[in-house]
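Chain A, query sequence.
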Amino acid sequence: MEKIKNNDNPSELGIGVNDSRLRAGVAKSDITTGEKGRIIKDPLYAKVLVLNDGITKITLITMDTTAIGGRRISQGMLPDVGEDFMPMLRARIEKELGIPGLNVLVNASHTHPPGRFLCEDKELLDRVFDAVRRASQSMVEVKTGAGSGYEDRISMNRTLRLKNGSHWTIRHSNPCPPDDEVEALGPLDPEIGIIRIDRLDGSPFAVVYNFACHPLWGDYEGRITANFPGYASKVIEDSLGHEAMAFFLQGAAGDVCDVTFKNFERVRDVECLGTTLGLSTLKALSRIETKDAKIKVMSETIMLPRRTDIPEKIEKLEKEQSELLASLRSTSLNFKSFLPLFMKYKLNHDYPSDYAFNYLKSEKTERLELVAMDSFNRGNVDKYLRNIQAMEILARIQDDIATLRKHQAINEESGTSVIEAEVMGIKIGECALISAPLEALVEIGLNIKKASPLKHTFMAAYSNGYMHYGAPASYYDKGGYEVTECLLAPEWQEIYERKAKKIILKLK
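Chain A, predicted structure.
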């Protein structure tokens, strides 16, 4: 079941048809909370790009926040932007500025805060709208071009492929798996999708750069930050000058983390990550030529099925949990006795308990007490190590069961078997943007790019809504966190990808 809304017909938009050159306006508003006592490392912004080619008007808004409209569906875990924000903003833009509401795309950078970090609802709506108003009132004639950069040094797929065929996601809520069980890494999309917008005199006006990353934690002090995408934008803007504005557009990053995510021996430095991303974007930007361009936009609403397999998943995890708990029986050592034994047997495998000559003497006299004691101790040490591994798996299982129960409750309380999702397509010159209101995994984004006949196609996930993760159907039996955190049935992938492809073809 689908609701189709096509925004390309000029008569429907109430915009006169003419052959005027593409015009653009930019503006930004600080949307950081004004609460006392909150430490702000760098301010959070809503940045607005308005485009008008004389036939179609579109508004692209990027916000330094975790999600757009995820308050209720996350049960308050993502509190900053409520579900009413998008419809209220669109209605106000359409009524007061004449830009069709369905031509407004709002993307979240997905920076993760230490609690709520945006201003209150009414103030947030006012500040974002004010930026749209200012951008629409300061339009200049522009030319655009699209291209791609490359950056594979700062991110990785966080869901590891294990030798037993399952997935294990790198998270701070559970340990990493044993090294000898890891077989491979998942896919990564290192492309930086870039839209360059210049004034007619060639000076830079705006840069939209699309990259799949997961800005999870800013620093250890819990300060409010736009994270490394915020620093990347600053690097780009400072380098370009001319008051050019950089817009970070989050991509399909559901199973991505930065490479320093589990580094406990260095102070977390998101500025370094952002500088790397910014410089790689600038390197590619310099190769992009701009020219006259036209724009198109359309949005379609699809119904994605909610998953029904959660009780079976919980039952399977509880069985595994019970088996692991039973395996803890017959443990002789505690940590105090384990650690010195472990170190002793690691330091000298052949003669751990005494000098070599005493082992030789014991062997010669056929008194094998040392060897027998070592065998006994090694058994206890190995048992304790197995217990540690069991504990690490139990930590993940506990978190997975709690998450599944939460999502089961969310689906049951909804009273419906489907979730309404908007898929929006924007074509700017030779480049297409396709939105998704969820945390699409890398494979989804790569599929969309591969299926597009256009020269450049970029995915704007985390846009115009939020419904947690969007994992490929083939991942559902693998056990990764992103599937555990998914509200949708595996059939969602085919429905979404089919619709996204159709929109791209219509935009072409």
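Confidence is low (pLDDT under 50) at residues 8-18. Residues 350 and 356 are 8 Å apart (CA to CA).
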